[in-house]
Amino acid sequence: MKSYRKELWFNVPSRRGFVNITPQVEECLDESGVSEGLVLVNAMHITASVFINDDEPGLHHDYEEWLEKLAPHEPIRQYRHNDTGEDNADGHLKRQVMGREVVVAVTDRRLDFGPWEQIFYGEFDGRRRKRVLVKIIGE
Amino acid sequence: MKSYRKELWFNVPSRRGFVNITPQVEECLDESGVSEGLVLVNAMHITASVFINDDEPGLHHDYEEWLEKLAPHEPIRQYRHNDTGEDNADGHLKRQVMGREVVVAVTDRRLDFGPWEQIFYGEFDGRRRKRVLVKIIGE
Amino acid sequence: MKSYRKELWFNVPSRRGFVNITPQVEECLDESGVSEGLVLVNAMHITASVFINDDEPGLHHDYEEWLEKLAPHEPIRQYRHNDTGEDNADGHLKRQVMGREVVVAVTDRRLDFGPWEQIFYGEFDGRRRKRVLVKIIGE
């Protein structure tokens, strides 16, 4: 069994944003030499997500508005977590909707994807350096 | 390490619906010959889900109503994604609540399930052929 | 390839609650002898979750209030699932928001975690014994 590990670093300049990280994950897969197996891609921070969906700016705008409706950032004081001095409680909630991680099949050295699947880093408390873990196991 | 791959095809005749796909995944596991490992089952389309819950029609009705409340289909024009000519933005949102994929343990050649766990395909933009990927790795 | 399996049992004394199960999962990893691979941790029941987030009581209070707003327990009769004699339909909904499972990388015999990641059992229909599955594969 082969195993491979890499950390990807991001610094999203706004509080929230989505970044297509598919090319970096493909690069990891190339480096790993794995042709059959599984790739795990997970946020290492708890106010961020990794998810798979469409690379369409209108949709990302819809996600932003929808998540803000489901778990609004303001008023800060509505969340008990923010009594600790943080202002990111909403980010912990939004991340649960969008998910921490994806697991993707590796077949014949490629990410085994449907036609529109792309991997995104979802940031809900940005303006600082944060990490995603890529772990690949297989043969 | 053994690895196995199969695509399952579905054509749900309505916009939304849930299909119990546990028997097909069990068939895949039989074919794979894997006795210890992991099964990944994921929607290959981005307006569909794979999730594990109860095979109870009342519950599926509740999911339908609840998801429609969290991310309503109408009015179409409320979503910027639909400016692209699509009418399925709500499906992209609903799928994030229900999830893209499940990972299930394989123990002693069986899906290692609790008493009520069943795997479902969740369709949020149906009336066309769409795929689920089953990938199994192990020994 | 090594594989390891263990069931963890919980009896949360209230209807809903969150339990940090990271120490038990670390114990499983020690017992498994796996140094490189993947850990799957999943609820075996369909009104419970396993998720990764922060071990901060204020945040858990926020999750509780937020989930109760997204999928309220009362009135019981609003859910068709409860016509079966159950009163836990809301638990099946809440569990979809928080997720069934997590997959965690194993690197150098450790759970490969970011600074604040902790694994929780999320109970949405407690006051009885329920199980979590830990499955580890790797080398």
Automatic annotation (TrEMBL), chains A, B, C:
The record's Pfam families line, in alphabetical order, gives: YjbQ
Spell out the Gene3D superfamilies in the cross-references: YjbQ-like (2.60.120.460)
Which SUPFAM superfamilies does the UniProt entry name for this protein? YjbQ-like
InterPro entries recorded? UPF0047_YjbQ-like (IPR001602), YjbQ-like_sf (IPR035917)
Q: Report TM segments.
A: none
Question: What is the protein name stated in its UniProt record?
Answer: Secondary thiamine-phosphate synthase enzyme
| Organism whose genome encodes this protein | Nitrosococcus halophilus (strain Nc4)
